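Running low. Invent one:
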Amino acid sequence: MRTEPKAASLDKFIQYTKSWRRPAEMEPAVVFNEWASGNEPPSSSLPAQMAAKSMKILAPDNVDAFHHRLLRAYFTENRTISDWSVLGAVASDVGVDSEEFLAATRQRDRSLTEEVIADHNEAINKGITGVPAMIFNDTFPIQGAQDFDSLSMWTARLLDRRSG
């Protein structure tokens, strides 16, 4: 996780987004678009993670909708989700007042940053070095986009171990 913004070349980022084809092929219900907008790539994941934590405090009933809308803004609409105006618009899209959301987030800036960094450090301590990631049985990390059959297989193996 970068806490400081990083300027990546747009061409390099567009090339990176071509890797989204594999997860898109695994899950046809989800739309991944290679970066084709004139928007700058996100400079850091920190603002979006802070926004998600802020939503949990400000409007807990909207957290899931915010999460899904944020993913769509990034992967489908190619929006710069490190831009606070975009994050405010995403909050508004799920029924939360943008101005109130941004003000509440700014007010908690330091504590939200510390929480996100603590979560990141905890993940590293558990052996997680990439996203997405899941931890099975509090010890077994599975990283990267996985198809349903692979997840089912890992789940079955872990359940067998627990019962055996």
